[in-house]
Automatic annotation (TrEMBL):
<feature type="domain" description="Cobalamin-independent methionine synthase MetE C-terminal/archaeal">
    <location>
        <begin position="20"/>
        <end position="373"/>
    </location>
</feature>
<dbReference type="InterPro" id="IPR002629">
    <property type="entry name" value="Met_Synth_C/arc"/>
</dbReference>
<dbReference type="InterPro" id="IPR038071">
    <property type="entry name" value="UROD/MetE-like_sf"/>
</dbReference>
<keyword id="KW-0489">Methyltransferase</keyword>
<dbReference type="Pfam" id="PF01717">
    <property type="entry name" value="Meth_synt_2"/>
</dbReference>
<keyword id="KW-0808">Transferase</keyword>
<dbReference type="GO" id="GO:0032259">
    <property type="term" value="P:methylation"/>
</dbReference>
<dbReference type="GO" id="GO:0003871">
    <property type="term" value="F:5-methyltetrahydropteroyltriglutamate-homocysteine S-methyltransferase activity"/>
</dbReference>
<protein>
    <submittedName>
        <fullName>5-methyltetrahydropteroyltriglutamate--homocysteine S-methyltransferase</fullName>
        <ecNumber>2.1.1.14</ecNumber>
    </submittedName>
</protein>
Amino acid sequence: MAVDNSIQINPTLTPFFSDQVGSLLRSEALKAARLQKQNGEISEQQLRTIQQQEIKSHVQKQKDAGLKAITDGEYSRAWWHFDFLEGLNGVIGYEPDSPLPFKGTKPKVHSIKVTDKIRFSQTHPFLQDFEFLNSLVDNKNHIAKQTIPSPNMLFLRGKNEASCYQNNLEAYLSDLIQAYQEAIQSFYDLGCRYLQLDDTAWALFFSETGINGLEELGYTVEQTLDIFTRLINESIKNKPSDMLITMHICRGNFRSTYFGSGGYDAAAETIFGELKVDGLFLEFDDERSGGFEPLKYVQRKDLFVTLGLVTSKTPELEPKALIKKRIEEASQYLDLAQLRLSPQCGFASTEEGNLLSEQDQWNKLKHVVDIAEEVWGQ
């Protein structure tokens, strides 16, 4: 009898001991094309053609690096989160007075606001993007991984100007949850079996600065924890059993800088004990992320934790022995069988990208794969 070697997504044990967060550095050809489109020199369709050519090339490079989970590099986006959120009905982009407070640099000034009832539409451009990516992946030896921002990001970053939500938080949350439930089902219907929610909102709980920011928004820590947990759990509660949904928790990633620091301790019981995701991608690449002790709050045998021990912010390859030692340290709090390895974040959360070369990027991803094979044997 022939053996079926195709990848089967099992939410209780993902086969990917080496993985990636998602975004990849934009190639020079793609950067040039986006600038030409901005200047009116080429059409939207011409840009899309170049974009798809670059995705196709870089899908092959991901395969060559040994990755099983393949992304489109987020090549149709300017931002890791705003593009998806602006694709929701009732959400628009705008320019606030100041950018997010990254350390040592300033990103472009941009944000989002909610102006009407939040809905997900079947015309959302990310659906077409996923279809193209999925056409490049055979689902036998590799699988297409779709990344989208967590619903918490609209709640946190979206300025609420919709009359239907004034003094009606319940309506706001309910509509946001419904939009995400429909989005998840739509991706599934197109063949998506691996979806990742990206989320910087949890970093608010990791530092005094973040907690003070919550108070300025008018919420207590307890209220915000409840809201964030509800948005995640209810958004994914109807996911099909053969669909893997993970979440990446980040402290900011722009041009190799960050905006948040602090360990997971303050929100650990919620993150590790209450969220219903299948897996967590966590930053652990430097002292900003704290220690591994919070992993002791993992109560489920079917939850895997991907350790972001390899930084995407600098080109130098971390010594294998160091990474293996840190994996061993983490295994003192969570069984090695539930641990995975990845870079701590993507390489280009915005189109500007981090401060390393494309070759550095591929070296990093191959490094992750090689170490995982030595630690887990696959």
